[in-house]
Known about the structure:
By secondary structure, this protein is mainly α. The chain is 59% helix and 5% strand. It has a three-stranded antiparallel beta sheet with strand order 1-3-2. A hairpin with a 2-residue loop joins strand 2 and strand 3 (199-205). It starts with a helix and ends with a helix.
Amino acid sequence: MIYVLINLQIAHVIVLSDNRENIKRLAKAMPSKPLNSIALSDADSASSLSFVKQKLHDSGIDIGISGQQAQSVERLGGRASDLESVSLSPYFSYLIILFTPLQLIHKVRSGMKVDEAVEDIISRGVAELRKNAFGDDADDAKSLSWTREQAWKVLRVLSKAQEVGYYDILVEFPFKGDESALRSMEHAELISIGTKDGRPCTIRPGKPVFRYVFERVVNDKVFQATQELGYNEKQIAEAEGKIKTYEQELALLVETMKNENRRWYQFGQSPCRERARYVGDKLVTAERKVEGLERKNNELKRVLAKGG
C-alpha cells in the first residue's frame, strides 16, 4: 500500500519506527525510491518530568515531586514509550512497560513513593535483561543472535559510559568484525547505533534507562564473576590456539634455518631468523596473556566460593 501511494505520487509517506534496521526493509521494498531519514532524540530531563507531572495531574493525582524524586524520574530518560505507552518488543516486552501513568498511579495509591516506584521498575528490568540478553541457561543462550561474551562486553562498557565508538567495539574481542551480532542487539533494542555520514559511528544503550539497568547487572558480584569467567575462558582458548600456531611455525623455521646454505658474511641477515624473532615475541605475549587471565579466573572463583 505504501509503495502504491509513493509510486503513483498520491502522497508523501512518513514512517515512524523505533528501530533503525527497519530502514533496510523499506529500502528493499522500494529499491527505486530514495529514502530520507531523520533521527529523533529523547526528550530532555525537564520535559520528561513535566510530562510525568501532567499525566499524574490528568489522572487526578497531584503530588509534590522533590528534587531527589525528580532525579529518580530522570533515570528513566525521555523516551515517550518508556514514560507512557507500552512497547510490543519481543525481546523486552516486560522491561519496556517501564513507566506508564497507570503503573505510577497504582503504586502511588498503594503508598509507594515516586523514587521507590522507579527503583522497582529498574529492579524488574534487571531480571528481565539477564534473561533476554544472556538466556536462562547455556542451551537457551544458543538461540540468541549473539554470544554471552558479546552481550557482556557491551553491558560492561556502556555501564560506565553513555556511548562508545562503534569500531572500538567491533574490531576487538569478542566481536572481531561480527557486525551481525551488533545489528541483532540493535534490533532487540538492547543498544542503539548512531551514524555519521551514512556509516555506523557510536553505540549507546537502547533506551536511556538501560544505562542504569546495565550498571545494576554489571555490579552484581556473583553475576559479574560468572560472566567474567566465561569471557576470560574464551580469551584463553583463543590465545592458546595462537600459541600452538606460533610453536608450529617456530619449529618449521628452525628446521629451515638448519638447511640454509648461507655464506659467513650473511650472518644475521636470514629472513627466517627475523621471522622467528617476530613469532617468538608473539608467542611470549600470548603466553603472558594466558597467565594473566588464569590469575584473574582464580580470583573470580574465590568470589563465587564466597557467594559474592
